[in-house]
Amino acid sequence: MPELDSERSFLIRPDPEAGPLRGIANLLRIDGDRMAGRVAVVEHPIAPGALVPPHTHTREDEVSYVVRGTIGARVGDEFITASPGAYVLKPRGIPHAFWNAGPEPAKIVEIIVPAGFERFFAELDELARQGPLDSHRHAELGVRYGVHYHDEWIAELTERFGIRVPS
Q: Could you read off the pLDDT of 11-32 as tens digits, one per residue?
């Protein structure tokens, strides 16, 4: 069994969040390498009305803990509204999407099991820094990380909830 990285402190201090959001930020808090590949943690501040594109994971399970704001989610055929203190379960193999359903900024803590998918966010952020992220490049990145997108949900979600996928 791999060992934990005990060369560094066992305390993770909070970092300042990104400035004003137009969409979703990806703030890596605990890298999977630090936990021997077992778990990773990413914080997602989410702007009002921002939708994370519907997708399915093939390799990992995710649990979202709502820290602030109101999060809407669709997991399979179930629609959820989650407030601070709630957990949203997103098991592998089940399509899901989530969004900020309130008028104020929201934040979730994403627990990823097993680790590895946190690297997707680093690559996604790098692609976004290079210019507008088109759906083809986003889909290619998803394939490398075992994620399949469900664009057919977007029209329904945007119309029903007045949300959008950030550019």
A: 888 877 665 556 889 999 999 9
Using CA atoms, how far apart are residues 32 and 37, in angstroms rounded to an integer? 5
The residue with greater pLDDT, 63 or 6, is 63
Residue 138 identity (one-letter amino acid): H
Task: Sheet containing 40-46: give its strands across.
Answer: 27-30, 40-46, 106-113, 61-68, 87-90
Longest CA–CA separation in the chain, Å: 50
Strand order in the sheet with 78-82: 78-82, 71-75, 96-100, 51-57, 147-149
* Domains in the chain with CATH codes: 27-148 (2.60.120.10)
Positive/negative CA dihedral, 66, 50, 99, 94: negative
